[in-house]
Write a structure and sequence with these properties.
The protein has 15 helices and nine strands. It is α/β, with parallel strands linked by helices and 353 residues long. Bound molecules: 5'-deoxyadenosine (5AD).
Length: 353
């Protein structure tokens, strides 16, 4: 057997690869090897989660952001963005609509917008919890104080998504002039310690990102053991300093999704909107390469296009119900079954048993 086949087998059998092995794999993988990798990742996904793909309703509730990440379309210094903020009442209306469409997980995502104070967020979460005792409430609102995370958890939030973006300190600091590498990691650790189900993750194809950096991303995740892992291609946005850079590719992103499935086999891995933007079948391909979550957008159509982290984002003109059924068809066409339940991670649901 070739070195590559040995490595792919090792990843499948042991769910572990060293940094050097991951780098070798990333540097030498061929088209045929990728097919083998994806089939191992798919088998592993099936062993933990069967044919289920979990749906989460995504509410992008504000595009105001105090940070200035070089890659992001809604960075603070992009003056071309028409900023919007949904009121708590409008967010609750989205939840009502999402609930009627069958969603039992809501993801509340925004730029880092301090207009939403602890008090406002606590009241909002309590109200969602009161209306829908059984839903999972996921926050994706960026860096806040540990005390804030604590009170949001106490008021009923279950999960928190915060990508680590890249495990390379040097690259992180180049891309995030207003943020610190250590703060990001401290937030993730704090969220975990509080008891949230945590989602981390990274972008693929960032300018200057090396195979060593990507190997480090996977090693970092393996140590952190998050419940969820979001991986998407970097897609340049023309109104940012990285507007003329090359973006991440479909193949490179799928390889990272598949490796994440093999190395952290019990995690929830979304097939990201960014992959759907890169390729018409991008999300289906990710489901065939180990992903098992999709996050259809339920943001009101009137503001959707303004939440442009990258350009040409799909579903901009769709209504929430369009996304709901489009995604379900895509899941079925890829050979899986849409599941609207809470979709807890294998680990957290087996701990509760
Ligand atoms: N291309 C791809 N993904 C992006 N994100 C932000 N900007 C871009 C971009 N230009 C990702 C970041 C962030 C998540 C919400 O979106 O990883 O954490």
């Amino acid at each position: 057997m070739s070195d590559m086949h040995n490595l792919l087998n090792k990843a499948y059998e042991t769910n572990d690869l060293t940094k050097v092995e991951i780098m070798y794999l990333l540097e030498n993988i061929t088209h045929e090897d990728r097919a083998v990798l994806y089939s191992y990742a798919l088998k592993t996904k099936k062993a933990y989660y069967g044919d289920k793909v979990y749906l989460r309703g995504l509410i992008e509730f504000s595009n105001f952001c105090r940070q200035d990440c070089l890659y992001c379309g809604i960075r603070a210094s992009n003056v071309n963005v028409e900023r919007y903020r949904l009121t708590p009442e409008e967010i609750l209306d989205c939840c009502d609509q999402g609930y009627k469409l069958g969603y039992r997980t809501f993801v509340l995502q925004s730029g880092e917008d301090l207009w939403y104070t602890d008090e406002i967020l606590v009241a909002l979460i309590q109200e969602i919890r009161k209306r829908y005792p059984e839903v999972a409430i996921t926050l994706s609102i960026g860096e806040r104080r540990a005390e804030t995370y604590q009170s949001l958890f106490a008021s009923g939030a279950d999960r928190f998504l915060m990508r680590h973006e890249t495990a390379s300190k040097e690259l992180y600091e180049r891309l995030h002039p207003t943020m610190r590498f250590e703060d990001r990691r401290a937030c993730l650790s704090a969220l975990k310690a509080i008891g949230y189900q945590v989602g981390a993750g990274f972008m693929v194809g960032l300018p200057g990102q090396t195979p060593a950096d990507l190997a480090e991303d996977l090693r970092y995740l393996k140590n952190l053991r998050p419940d969820m892992i979001g991986i998407g291609p970097f897609i340049p946005h023309s109104q940012t300093p990285l507007g003329t850079e090359k973006g991440g590719t479909l193949d490179d992103t799928l390889v990272m999704v598949a490796l994440a499935r093999l190395l952290i086999p019990d995690s929830l891995i979304p097939s990201t909107t960014a992959l759907g933007t890169l390729h018409p079948q991008g999300r289906e391909l990710a489901l065939r390469a180990g992903a098992n979550v999709v996050m259809p957008i339920i943001t009101p159509t009137s503001v959707r296009k303004q939440y442009a982290l990258y350009e040409n984002k799909i579903c901009g003109d769709d209504q929430p119900e369009d996304c709901r059924y489009c995604i379900e068809r895509r899941i079925q066409s890829a050979g899986f079954e849409a599941d609207l339940g809470r979709g807890d991670s294998y680990r957290s649901s087996s701990l509760e048993d």
